[in-house]
Amino acid sequence: xxxxxxxxxxxxxxxxxxxxxxxxxxxxxxxxxxxxxxxxxxxxxxxxxxxxxxxxxxxxxxxxxxxxxxxxxxxxxxxxxxxxxxxxxxxxxxxxxxxxxxxxxxxxxxxxxxxxxxxxxxxxxxxxxxxxxxxxxxxxxxxxxxxxxxxxxxxxxxxxxxxxxxxxxxxxxxxxxxxxxxxxxxxxxxxxxxxxxxxxxxxxxxxxxxxxxxxxxxxxxxxxxxxxxxxxxxxxxxxxxxxxxx
Length: 246
Fold this sequence. Notes:
Elements lengths: L1 H5 L14 H17 L1 H7 L7 H19 L9 E5 L5 H8 L3 E6 L2 H10 L8 E5 L12 E4 L8 H12 L6 E7 L2 H10 L13 E2 L1 H10 L5 E10 L2 E9 L1
Parallel strand pairs: 1-2, 1-4, 2-3, 4-5, 5-6
Antiparallel strand pairs: 5-8, 7-8
């Protein structure tokens, strides 16, 4: 059941620092998991194909969260450049492009990027650029908005703060992202997951308290306000919507 709980679209790769083996090790597990182990599971979950009841709750939760994240952006994104940070199989990418945005869709998994590109309707192709790798890379340019859905759930508060600080310098508007909230139910699943051998489960997400996360972001150089927006709970999908605004 850990796979259903911890599915994610990608992860930042900036700050690949040999002096921080924990971060590097986590990054390696996330990259391997989503590009090798979980690609087909993720492809099926993000399609209309029949899935188990557990995965159906995850699908419904993700649909709800995606709608909430999009509601934080203007309805008309014509002329706006948006980073879909951790695009996964491309569901958010399609929605952003349909609103008129120029989308840079990136993911740590080249396999998922290929799926996203194949799914993109022909009519929207001129608006979307796909790439795989580091969503924090400065060569990706400037953005009006950033959306990072389930892309940061495996990282501690300081790493998330550093990622937000890096994105903030290149984003004119809002940064909308999700984290795993520190709830009793999620913490119970988190501790239970630690009982299983690492080879049998996906990388472990890190639950966060929204207030402490905001403090950590400020410590890491974030200038804007990081605040919680809304929480989505749907079976095994539990996620907290957060927003960074200037």
